[in-house]
Amino acid sequence: MANKTAATLLAIVMLLPGAVYADEKHISIYSPVAIYTVPVIERGGREYVGLLELLEPLGRVSSQAGGAHWGLHYNAVAADFFAERTRARIHSRDFDLSAPFLIENSRGLIPVTSISDVLRRFLGAPVNFREASRRLFIGGVGTQVSFQLDANTPPHLILNFTFPVNPTISTEPGRLRMIFKRDPLISPGSQSISFENKIISQASYFENNGDAEIDIAATSSLMATFSNSRKTITVGPIPPQVASAISSTRGGTNSIAPAQGASTPATSLPGQSSAGASSPSQASLPAPVVHRVLAFIDPAHGGQERGAALSESVAEKNVTLGFARLLRHELEQRGFVVSMPRDGDNTLTLDQRASSANSSGAGVYIGLHAVSQGTGAAVYTALLPLQGISSGVFQPWNAAQSPSLPISRAISSAIVAEMQKREFQVRSSSVSLRPLNNLSMPAVAVELAPGGNGIDDLTSANYQQRAASAIADAVTSIRDRLAVQ
Ligand SMILES: [Zn+2]
């Protein structure tokens, strides 16, 4: 009895490290300019990475090692590190690493736990490091996935990605695994989703050692097909005649690299490049027509719904309205047509706001919020929720934003850049925030927080004006990618 327990424990203890060492530790880095990995090395029980290797693919770098000093230039940013010391200096600012800096054969090593801090100081861009899974996202890159079950016979699970993907797919009876090594796939929000279906029962999402993985469980053997320029993967049961062909040539597990193995039906739809779809009338008109982009500005809250109480006398609903009017003015000056669901103190539901934006023909939606906590601003794009078949009717509504997400994210990045130019502390993230998910055009929400003067900033026309002109410049910089009326 005791022996058996000990043996079981030993097996567990042996398995865990085995799983880790099977694949060398590395960090996957996803940025707008490069996707790459850097190895993780252990020193004194801590994890380290080479700083030069981390920065090299992102810009121009050079390093000089001399004695205990290690100097680094990244583009125009200079930095100094010292062997065995935590204190370091980047861009004339001192700060502390979470563990001592190391120099080995002229190579400078920083602790993994300091990567976000160090990169932010060098890059001045948003950095999101998912430390547990060793995945690092720079500058707001990310591929979203949404799931839709087509419950016909046989059923198919349709995975829509916001950018083309190239997973390695392997199958075994009852299970299909997709491993994303080079795609900046973002967690769909929940770890697994169950389907009320006899054949395809569940989809699960994991992240580990720099990779993301989607597993699909089923009661029959599955196969995957790519379409829509690799932005859609359809998973369904293997047709009987194909199944028998496979089992006669291979046994058990089979693994396919998608580029050769999976069939890619040429079913790209005619209107796929949706940006150019709106000008059939232009050919018949003698003079060029100036199309204007309609911007839909949505001041959050209103009427009975006051929003956050920013102070005893200031309600969020009033701040958002004032801010919206300034932004309207800024956008009109830049040639946009502007529509707002309220220009007074009205109560509107989220569905009303979404329907009115969707039916307005707007090329862009900008939601406005205000908070008393934090500083600067936050820019949000939609994080699409996982949807099961049980909510089939709501699926198109909740995923309405999906096709527009790449442009929404481009607008978000542009707003971050413009606000940073005006010295706002600003961050961007994906959130499951309604009505963003329900909007059929590129959509962002901007949440304004106080600057250096506390809550007074939120009601200051000057402060709001700076934010509004930043947003207007950002949207203008993306105007060519927005649909015209
Ligand atoms: Zn709000």
How would you describe this protein?
The longest helix has 20 residues, at 2-21. This protein is of the alpha+beta class. It contains 10 helices and 29 strands. Mean pLDDT is 81; it is low at 1-22, 246-290 and 387-395. The N and C termini lie far apart (76 Å). It has helices spanning 2-21, 51-55, 115-123, 240-249, 316-333, 350-359, 395-398, 405-421, 456-459, 461-477, and strands spanning 26-30, 35-39, 41-43, 46-50, 61-66, 69-74, 77-82, 87-90, 93-96, 102-104, 107-111, 127-130, 135-138, 145-150, 156-161, 168-172, 175-180, 192-194, 200-208, 211-218, 222-227, 232-237, 254-256, 294-299, 337-339, 364-370, 377-382, 426-431, 443-448. Zinc ion (ZN) binds at residues 300-301, 307-308, 316, 369.
Task: Spell out the blueprint of helices and strands.
Blueprint: H1 2-21, E1 26-30, E2 35-39, E3 41-43, E4 46-50, H2 51-55, E5 61-66, E6 69-74, E7 77-82, E8 87-90, E9 93-96, E10 102-104, E11 107-111, H3 115-123, E12 127-130, E13 135-138, E14 145-150, E15 156-161, E16 168-172, E17 175-180, E18 192-194, E19 200-208, E20 211-218, E21 222-227, E22 232-237, H4 240-249, E23 254-256, E24 294-299, H5 316-333, E25 337-339, H6 350-359, E26 364-370, E27 377-382, H7 395-398, H8 405-421, E28 426-431, E29 443-448, H9 456-459, H10 461-477
Parallel strand pairs: 1-13, 24-25, 24-26, 26-29, 27-28
Antiparallel strand pairs: 1-2, 3-4, 4-11, 5-6, 6-7, 7-8, 8-9, 10-11, 12-13, 14-15, 15-22, 16-17, 16-23, 17-20, 18-19, 19-20, 21-22, 27-29
Helix pairs in contact: 5-10, 8-10
This protein binds zinc ion (ZN).
